[in-house]
Amino acid sequence: MNQISFFEAKVANGNGEQTLSRDVYRLGHWFDFYRMLSFYFTTVGFYFNSMVTVLTVYVFLYGRFYMVMSGLERDILNSPSIHQSKALETALVSQSVFQMGMLLMLPMVMETCLEKGFRKALGDFIIMQLQLAPVFFTFQLGTKAHYFGRTILHGGSKYRATGRGFVVFHAKFSENYRQYSRSHFVKGLELGILLVLYEVYGGSYHSSNLYLFITFSMWFLVVSWLFAPFIFNPSGFDWQKTVDDWTDWKRWMGIHGGIGIQPDKSWESWWEEEQDHLKYTTTLGMVLEVVLALRFFVYQYGIVYHLDIAHHSKSFLVYGFSWAIIVVAVVVLKMVSVGRQFFVGDLHLLFRMLKAFLSIALLAIPIVLFKVYGLNVSDLFAAILALTPTGWGLLLIGQAFRPFLEKLCWDSIKEVARAYDYMMGLLLFTPIAILSWFPFVSELQTRLLFNQAFSRGLQISMILSGKKDK
Question: Where is the Glycosyl transferase domain (predicted)?
């Protein structure tokens, strides 16, 4: 799968560069209408449509999030005209059929039906579903949209070595994380948080059927973007390989970067390489990068007013207090970073005392909030969901303004980025480790990936291990 994704990324980058070129403009300008449509849908239009599809999901979920947090959706659904009518759910049932992609599958089924007959077409269609073809193509949709969109914003298309053959091998967890972290995992977690918040804060008034019809395709997209690389990774749920992957992941995260250190050897080198597109971007590209990062502040603004500790207050001081918490966290992080540099040698004991004092202070703050202001556990988890995206947004803005912040607080930004990657890696690795405990999961995955090879009597274990049958 990695080779296919590399190829898709390379082609998407190329189409992004073509979109920005004068040649495409001139061709489209002088073509007649039908040739222009043919040219559009066979070149850059396919990737533009993929990007628009993903952007539509973002607009839809952020719009729903706003409606839930503002109370607008509750007022609409609780109105008598909506409550007494089933027309909305009936319309959503019909629309959900299109969300499943049935309309897009119809031409393929009809073509196979004409060439090989209805029974063969139906059989091929069922086999494709059993082989998780929708998961694969949904994942590749994210690949096209990410690399095409990033090239449109910043340029920076580059050659990606894809090889000439498809080799069957197990890709390590760190390799999958390097390749798909920014293109799929971050976006999948973002959409997943939106869906969770939509369910939590809207679950008290909307029906389960309505929620299912609206969001099931979104959940399918989230699961595909987060776990498709591991589902289509040979021996991805083998316990011993999972243990080896975790060891390799920890080693990769801990090694410091530097001159001559390759991205596959160190997290720092990989993180620096991931920002190459920002080094050569234009002022407009930097501004758009910052504007897009501002969407992560919406979570905090919407959630803090729904906390029990806020006591239904709509005062701006509630939002300001949430930012005060972020400022305190940044100051503490900076104090620890500066203390590590200055309190060395004989002053190492003072540095430990400083860390102990800060730890006690950070522990005392939530205790006081629990006892005095009525903070509860649900508020604590909600605050984490609110502040975590805000921190990621600040991190993206800091990366965009690297020339101005590199001498001021770049080491702190790097440590925050490392912490976020640790958390994302742990969230992704945990379900993989749990499934790897059960041997039948690995066997089921192998049967799923190599079903035709099994039917032909090939020895899959030797193929995966790279051994020859003597």
Answer: 1-287
**Predicted model pTM:** 0.84
∠ at Cα 221 (211, 59), nearest 5°? 70
Residue 423 to residue 320: CA distance in whole angstroms: 26
**DSSP state, 170?**
P
- Read off the tokens for 328: 């305190």
DSSP state letters, 193-236: HHHHHHHHHHTTTS-HHHHHHHHHHHHHHHHHHHHHHHHTSTTT
List own/partner pairs for 366-375 with CB under 8 A and 24 or more apart: 369/309, 373/309, 374/308, 374/309, 374/311, 375/308, 375/309
- State the DSSP string of 43-104: THHHHHHHHHHHHHHHHHHHHHHHHHHHTHHHHHHTSHHHHT--HHHHHHHHHHHHHTTHHH
Query: How far lies 400's CA from each of 55, 190, 287, in Å?
Result: 21, 20, 9
Count Cβ atoms below 10 Å from residue 38 Cβ, excluding itself. Answer: 13
- Let me know if 348 is exposed, middle or buried by CB neighbors in 10 A (0-12, 13-18, 19+): exposed
306 closest CA partner among 390, 386, 389, 192: 386
CA 321 to chain centre: 29
Query: How many other C-beta atoms can be found within 10 angstroms of the C-beta atom of residue 347?
Result: 12
Structure tokens at 246: 């975790």
User: Which are the contacts of 157, defined by CB distance < 8 A and separation ≥ 6?
Assistant: 13, 14, 16, 17, 151
Q: Are 135 and 224 in contact (CB under 8 A)?
A: yes
